[in-house]
Amino acid sequence: MELLAKSEYALLALLELAAYYTRGEPLQIRHIAALHAIPNRYLEQQMAILKRGGLVKSIRGAKGGYVLARQPWKITILDALNCLEGLEPNVSVKRDMPDKPENQAIQDIWQEVHDAARSALKRYTLQDLYDRRKAKQQEGMMFYI
Q1: What is the rounded (10 degree) CA torsion for 55, 1, 124, 71?
Q2: Is the pTM of this model over 0.70?
Q3: Which mean pLDDT values do the consecutive 10-residue runs of the chain (145 residues) have?
Q4: C-alpha span between 39 and 42 (Å, rounded)
Q5: Considering the domain 5-140 in this protein, what is its CATH number?
Q6: What letter would DSSP give residue 69?
Q7: What is the rounded CA–CA span in Å between residue 10 and residue 38?
Q8: I want to staple 78 with a disulfide (CB 3.0 to 4.6 A). Which of 15, 33, 67, 122 is the partner?
Q9: How far apart are CA 46 and CA 37, in angstroms?
């Protein structure tokens, strides 16, 4: 399973929106793009997809921008990837392969891998992502006396 660049950029944007969630302030695309060196136009496309998917809302006006449509602890990473990449909750990994024991064995293991990945992505939320970033930032801080 590979994380596509468009999904990584969108997750970075969602992470920033999660960080601002308690403030109740919208974030502008140009701010998010500047923080993560993402082209504005590309990020606009990803935000439009997230908006159509019901994960973010746009707010018009001079102080407008984007906000999360739900609390960050209620949006899973799987929700975001389903929205961005069009993954289906019950995708079958069966291929048109001969019905031989070795092919069945491969498909069984691949299905287990697929199910485990989906389970992990479903278990983590934007809040978890935000909390991990915060913990990693604090790990990197060193205090000298």
Answers
A1: -10
A2: yes
A3: 85 95 92 94 94 95 92 96 74 63 88 90 95 88 63
A4: 5
A5: 1.10.10.10
A6: S
A7: 10
A8: 122
A9: 15
